């Protein structure tokens, strides 16, 4: 039996926003006790958390571990071992910045499944919990072109491809229903899938007891996807008030990824082509307005970075940058924290085991040097990460 106790901590209740002095005992990777005073026992590992704010491990739900910058350098025929090495390093970096659970929504060679399987085989605690999506589905020549996606045309092909990813072990299915910002000449307003194609993927997901996540740039395609049964949406670059109200219904989640339209310095440093930078710059004002509409409408917002979570973006981790951008879009610091914990946990169906500091929950914890209920920028000040009861170094 392994046991660890955190003492003199400031424990953040992400439901209420209350910050209270206390301690946490962890036994065999689970939270065993939370209280105002939990005394260390003989032989028990002890962490003095004086002055630190303890939050649940972060749940970030728009992750790509295998992504290549700039996108045009992607080799769809890359040696899978090369992809695996890059993805595993990215996973370790994500964990070190506090992302103890990541939802991957398109990985070349289904490398998210590989990283997860290897971690399970070796009890590797240096990578986060991975909720895997395998490969995304794209129309030929669409937004997913050139990234190792599965290319489909028509409902039958989309259904078969979705079943293949799910049968391989994917936890959800990713589709591209509009254009995006990466390629020259594409537009987030341009639809790329028919309602029948979306519905076919939703049917495949339902047969596996899961859901569909859509790269979705514009309200017209989003409304069609809602009609088809899609429940998880990414980006939402242009969303009108009517669509915002529709997205506010229970069981629907939106990950804004504001970071992708607000990271010009990082895009230049990573070698993004001029057209990608221009597309992002032009999209930024409408993107921010759209997310403010979603916040005002009461949409369930989740946290997602698109960049690998541990990537340095505009001077801090992508995790922290996106958190600060969500705050600028109208979420309170507490709501940002909820987006990155409880909301993400509900989206991936793990709300009974992650996203809160409660007995019985996974011992995924982050110690911060500043109060995240006062300012989302505190997520840039990670002091220590605990993953399943193990200290991350």
UniProtKB/TrEMBL annotation:
Domain Amidohydrolase-related stretches: 53-392
Top-level division of the source organism's lineage: Bacteria
Coiled-coil stretches noted in the UniProt entry, renumbered to this chain: none
SUPFAM superfamilies (alphabetical): Composite domain of metallo-dependent hydrolases, Metallo-dependent hydrolases
One MF term in the entry's GO annotations: hydrolase activity, acting on carbon-nitrogen (but not peptide) bonds
Organism of provenance: Nakamurella sp. A5-74
Cleavable signal peptide: none
PANTHER family per the UniProt record, alphabetical: ALPHA-D-RIBOSE 1-METHYLPHOSPHONATE 5-TRIPHOSPHATE DIPHOSPHATASE (PTHR43135)
Gene3D superfamilies per record: Metal-dependent hydrolases, Urease, subunit C, domain 1
Protein name, UniProt field: Amidohydrolase family protein
């Amino acid at each position: 039996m392994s046991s660890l106790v955190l003492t003199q901590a400031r424990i953040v209740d992400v439901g209420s926003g209350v910050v209270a002095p206390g301690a946490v005992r962890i036994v065999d990777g689970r939270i065993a006790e939370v209280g105002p005073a939990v005394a260390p026992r003989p032989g028990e590992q002890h962490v003095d958390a004086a002055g630190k704010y303890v939050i649940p491990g972060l749940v970030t739900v728009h992750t790509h571990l295998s992504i290549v910058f700039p996108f045009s350098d992607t080799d769809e025929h890359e040696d899978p071992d090369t992809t695996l090495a890059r993805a595993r390093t990215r996973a370790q970096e994500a964990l070190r910045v506090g992302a103890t659970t990541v939802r991957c929504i398109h990985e070349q060679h289904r490398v998210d499944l590989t990283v997860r399987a290897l971690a399970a085989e070796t009890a590797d605690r240096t990578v986060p919990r991975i909720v895997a999506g395998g490969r995304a589905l794209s129309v030929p020549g669409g937004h997913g072109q050139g990234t190792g996606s599965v290319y489909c045309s028509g409902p039958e092909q989309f259904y078969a491809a979705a079943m293949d990813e799910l049968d391989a072990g994917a936890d959800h299915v990713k589709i591209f229903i509009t254009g995006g910002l990466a390629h020259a000449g594409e537009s987030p307003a341009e639809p790329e899938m028919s309602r029948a194609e979306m519905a076919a993927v939703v049917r495949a997901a339902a047969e596996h007891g899961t859901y569909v996540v859509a790269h979705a740039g514009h309200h017209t395609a989003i409304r069609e996807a809602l009609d088809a049964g899609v429940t998880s949406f990414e980006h939402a670059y242009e969303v009108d008030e009517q669509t915002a109200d529709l997205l506010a219904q229970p069981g629907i989640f939106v990950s804004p990824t504001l970071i992708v339209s607000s990271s010009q310095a990082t895009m230049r440093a990573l070698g993004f082509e001029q057209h990608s930078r221009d597309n992002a710059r032009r999209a930024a004002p409408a993107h921010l307005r759209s997310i403010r509409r979603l916040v005002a409408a009461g949409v369930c917002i989740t946290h997602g970075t698109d960049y690998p979570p541990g990537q340095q973006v505009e001077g801090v981790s992508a995790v922290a940058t996106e958190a600060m951008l969500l705050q600028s879009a109208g979420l309170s610091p507490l709501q940002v924290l909820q987006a990155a914990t409880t909301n993400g946990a509900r989206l991936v169906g793990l709300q009974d085991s992650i996203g809160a500091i409660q007995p019985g929950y996974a011992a995924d914890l982050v110690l911060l040097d500043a109060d995240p209920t006062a300012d989302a920028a505190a997520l840039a000040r990670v002091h220590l990460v605990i993953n399943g009861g193990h200290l991350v170094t």
